[in-house]
Structure formats: C-alpha cells, structure tokens
Design goal:
The chain has helices at residues 15-28, 47-58, 71-85, 100-111, 127-134, 154-160, 183-194, 220-223, 255-266, 274-285, 289-309, 347-358, 382-397; strands at 34-35, 94-97, 117-122, 138-143, 165-171, 200-204, 231-236, 249-252, 325-326, 360-361, 363-364, 374-377. By secondary structure, it is an alpha/beta fold. The chain folds into two domains: 8-44 and 290-397, Aspartate Aminotransferase, domain 1, CATH 3.90.1150.10; 60-285, Type I PLP-dependent aspartate aminotransferase-like (Major domain) (Aspartate Aminotransferase, domain 2). The strands form three sheets. The protein has a seven-stranded mixed sheet, sandwiched between helices.
Amino acid sequence: MTILSATLARVKPSPTVSVTTLAQELKAAGRDVIGLGVGEPDFDTPDHIKAAAIAAIEAGKTKYTAPDGMPELKAAICKKFARENGLSYTPSQISVSSGGKQVLYNALMATLNPGDEVVIPAPYWVSYPDMVLLAGGTPVVVECGIEAGFKMTPEQLEAAITPKTKWLIFNSPSNPTGAGYTRGELKALTDVLMRHPHVWVMSDDMYEHLVFDDFTFATPAEVEPGLYERTLTVNGVSKAYAMTGWRIGYAGGPEELIAALRKIQSQSTTNPCTISQWAAVAALEGPQDFLAGNAKIFQRRRDLVVSLLNEAPGVSCPVPEGAFYVYPSIAGCIGKSAPDGTLITDDETFCRALLEATGVAVVFGAAFGVSPNFRVSYATSDEELTTACTRIREFCAALT
C-alpha cells in the first residue's frame, strides 16, 4: 500500500523545471551547457525595489500581514489596475499570493467540483492542466496550431464550452509561444463568453509589459465590461520587474471569489513574504520608464532568435507578439537521424538529442500540448543566444 494519494497520480512534475535542473546538473559536471529553458528575465531587480526591501528589513517590517496581502500593497495594486487596465477594484477585491501560480491554484481549488471542466488553449503553460487536475477538475484542451498563430478562434471556444464548463484560462501574451491577442481578436472571444454566463475567465496577464512592435495589450474584463463580475485578472511582479524569486503574484476579482481565495491561503501559506510585499509596493508605485527599455531589449533578442532559427533546416519559427519565448516547429526534422544514430521520432527525442550533442537545453513541445515544437526562452544575452541558435542550426543541418 502506498502512502501517496490517487490525486497525485493524475499530475506530472513540471517539464520546464526538469529541463532547467538537468541543464544545471550537466553544467556542474563540467559540460558546456546553454540553458534556454527557464522563464525568467536575466536582468537584475531594479535598485529602487531592492532598496525598499532593505528599508523594510531595517525598519523591522518583518511580521505577519493579512493572509492575502497588506493594505499598502493592495492599494498599489488597485491603482495599477486603474492606471494601466481601466479596471476599478477595491482592496477587498484584491488577492496577493506567493507568485502568480499560487493565485491560479487557489482559484481552482476554491471553485472546482468533480466533473467541472476548464477550457485551456494549447500551447499552454505547463502548469495549467495539472493544477486543474489537482483541484479535481477536467482540462479541456483546445489545440491552436501554428497556422492560426497559436491563437484560439471564437469557433473553437464555442465548440469547447459545455454545461460543465466553469473556467476559461486565458494567457496573452502567451507562455510558451509569445502569441498575443489583438483587441479585436479578444473581443471576438468575449462575445462568445457573453453568450455563456456560466463560464468564468481566468486571465493570466503576467507578460503584459513585454509586448513588441505596435502590439497593444488588452485584458478580457477591460475589453468586455460585461465580464467584470466573472473574471479573475491575474498578474504579478515576476516578469516585468525581474522579481521571479521574490514570489509576489496578485489578482483582482469579485469579492466572493477573493474571499474564497483568502480562506484557502489562510490554511496553506498564510501571507506572502512581508519583505517581498514592500518591494512589490515600490515596483508598482515607483518609476516605470525602464519597462519600455527592457521590452526593446527583448524585442531585439526576439528578432535575433527568429532570424537564426529560421536558418535551421527543418525548422519554422513564427514571430511572436510578446513575452520572451519562441515556439518553432520542427516538423521538417521528424523522421531523420542524428549523427549518433538517434532517430528523431518526436520533439522530446529531438530536444534530448540536441542537449546531448550540443549542450543546448530547450523544452520539448509535448509539454505544452502542441507538437512537434520546442520552446526557447530568449531571456539571456545576445552572445549566448547566438551561440545556442548556431548550435541548433548545425545540429539540424547534420540530421539525415
């Protein structure tokens, strides 16, 4: 008899974490490894944010706060939503957690009953389906291929909704593809949702400030105010402010739902790190001008990576609208063999052979629900990206 629960058997470890861990182990063993699997900016947290955390420590602001965030941070979040998204929330409609992932998990745990369905467009962030499964729900995956720019159509959303549907999880710009929905594309989806009042929207806006060219970010409750009362708008400081390790995510939503999230969190982690909360206040209320500068750096890296990967035989790499990922297809590589004799049968085989032969670590597409692809995080230096993409190109050219 095992001590482990049956629920645990329904989920798998995060593939992105596994790839990053393997790359770190190989590097520690002396291999020349370039890890392109981790989804975090390579920039340091801005100095004014670090200074706010140090000041909080020195002032003794190190005690418990309210379970779902201290008043000062909730006030800053309310101002952020009003300033940047045109959304009006009161502090009682705000939840702060130890990262955006905890917000999403709390919401699913608080709302899902056995048999409830959650619509998830694919490619998806690896954690979405497994969090739904852990909460007792059923993921309904809608595959959105490269021909559609990795975006779900209104027709696909309509077809996926059933009387059992409780949530749509929406992520734009997307992890893993970087695909961003225009306001018009988003309005077409919200029109569908307005016809189905039992479906709620979980909007993961974590990459809001990482958009390129002339793309303009929008969020569902902003585009369709009629969805305001059944939308959880999720964000955080991890990506835009280079604060992944500080672990602060937040959300705005209806009071009843936010109270349920508070109840869950009060019996799990209680409050997020107090020092990190003070740092997040400084992030949201301090200078914002560096955000556009960081986005320009990521845009330059995107253009570099897309250009180099499209030179690789058998690879096709679309141009994403945001985030810091590309999601190239390797359809032209399937069925070929690597120089060591490995037959490339799928994207997982490709990525393992690539790592073994070249030391470049990327995440295979099956982990995100659409194959044959792989994800590259270009949140690293131009030099490393150039070296890594050159190795990928040479690896693909050597396939026979």
